[in-house]
Design a protein that fits this description.
2 domains; 458 residues; mainly alpha; 0% strand
């Protein structure tokens, strides 16, 4: 069920109206039921599998809850990682074994290997919960209904943000009636998210897909347009999803954390990862980088920890050599940045505009591997950036306006508007949310149909 579809508009409208008409004590259960429907719309079979994994995780928490019990933590981590490995990584693991000359066929792979929707996101969310319980990071007593809602909450279920138990569960009690500020802000986010997805990401994806499907066939101009274009597409696609998710959550009385803060205006690679996919980068920091030793053991060990963290972050995105290279690329960039900053102080005097351009272009190089179907295709695309032959790609009319729209929405994320909703007349206060949502979905339905979000594949 895509956020940019008529089906979701109908689904969410019913959920919203029924949710706020119910007695306060029934709302949590209704949201859990709605989340079942949302996920089950894709696959009832994998919904059953998902619920089983969630219940097993809660069972470990409920029956074996002992702070500092390393054995309990080890077993539940093995369960979650094994579930992720079988569905997401086994075919790739078999391929790697074959590439290095070892046959491996415990589970036969025939036809298409189906990846359960949101498995990477909900696995990380459950792991963080179990680790936080082990560390004693929060004292909140979690009921089964609390845990189900924490994992299954449909606005953020498919592609995040990755929630933390101590943030979500301690604020799980929503207002007894709709909040005007939440409603107006949430509607604004939904509208912005649909604009990013439908008017920007989906419009440029057509010719980007064309170039990436045949790297080397087109001339350098087409490759450079796609080089910059995919950076814009993935930002608008993913941050657009996050905006819609946060908007829907606010309309239901829940506040989700931001996941993007104008990442392409970053003046360093560290700053980029503080602004891009924030919930993932902080997860990797807290549950991987710091346990590996963080920056506590000298420069060499710190850089190794950074590299391993980003390498595994790349693998989290997808079971392909291209994602591993993408993660390794960012690990190298972060390590190199630490190295030169410690030795050459003049880098600190470089104007922010110049350093932001530098960072953006190196990030774009990484996006080539992220987008390409194979390493060979990625290298072919990069060589096409400097090709003097090949076909000329005719860009659709209005492409320049699309790029300008991206700059506007990116700037609004960097310097957000803060409208004074309370100063509006009462009619406008309630009309704006309704109009904004329906305008957004009208745009979604009339411009490009229903294109899936990029991060749905993870």
């Amino acid at each position: 069920m895509l956020f940019n579809s008529l089906v979701f508009l109908i689904f969410f409208s019913f959920v919203y109206l029924i949710y706020w008409s119910l007695n306060h004590k029934w709302r949590r259960g209704f949201l859990i039921l709605a989340s079942f429907v949302f996920y089950g719309y894709w696959s009832v079979l994998f919904l059953a599998h998902f619920v089983l994994i969630v219940v097993l995780n809660y069972g470990f928490y409920y029956f074996f809850e002992r702070r500092g019990d390393r054995k309990r933590l080890t077993w539940i981590l093995i369960l979650n990682l094994a579930n992720l490995f079988v569905f997401k990584y086994y075919p790739f693991f078999k391929r790697v074994m074959s590439d290095i000359g070892f046959g491996f066929d415990v589970l036969p792979v025939s036809g298409e290997w189906i990846l359960p929707l949101a498995i990477s996101f909900y696995t990380f969310q459950m792991i963080s919960f179990q680790v936080d319980v082990h560390r004693g990071d929060f004292e909140y007593k979690v009921s089964l209904s609390d845990f189900l809602l924490f994992i299954l909450f449909f606005p953020q279920l498919i592609a995040g943000p990755i929630l933390r138990a101590k943030d979500f569960l301690t604020r799980i009690h929503v207002p007894k009636r709709p909040n005007l500020l939440f409603s107006t802000t949430g509607s604004w986010w939904i509208l912005i998210g649909l604009i990013k997805k439908v008017l920007i990401a989906d419009q440029i994806s057509v010719w980007i897909d064309t170039v990436y499907s045949s790297p080397g066939m087109y001339n350098a101009e087409a490759h450079w347009a796609s080089f910059y274009g995919f950076a814009i597409q993935i930002y608008c696609d993913f941050s657009g999803y996050t905006d819609i998710a946060r908007g829907c959550a606010l309309l239901l009385g829940y506040k989700l954390p931001p996941n993007f803060l104008a990442p392409y205006f970053s003046g360093s690679f560290r700053e980029f990862w503080r602004r891009w996919h924030i919930s993932l980068s902080t997860w990797l920091r807290d549950y991987l980088y710091i346990p590996l030793g963080g920056n506590r053991s000298g420069n060499l060990r710190t850089n190794i920890n950074l590299f391993l963290t980003m390498l595994l972050g790349g693998l989290w995105h997808g079971a392909n050599y291209t994602f591993i290279i993408w993660g390794a690329w960012h690990g190298l960039l972060l390590g190199f940045e630490r190295l030169i900053e410690g030795r050459f102080s003049f880098f600190k005097r470089v104007p922010k505009f110049v350093s932001a351009l530098f960072v953006f272009h190196f990030v774009c190089i990484g996006w080539v591997f992220f987008r390409a179907d194979s390493v060979v295709d990625a290298l072919g695309f990069i060589s096409g950036l400097f090709s003097f032959s090949g076909e000329k790609l005719k860009l659709p009319w209005g492409t320049n306006w699309i790029f300008l729209s991206f700059l506007i929405v990116h700037w609004l994320e960097y310097r957000p508007l803060k409208p004074k909703w309370e100063n509006l007349k009462i009619v406008l206060r309630y009309a704006i949310p309704v109009v904004a949502i329906f305008v957004g979905f009208w745009i979604a339905g009339s411009v490009s149909g229903e294109r899936s979000f990029i991060y749905f594949q993870f």
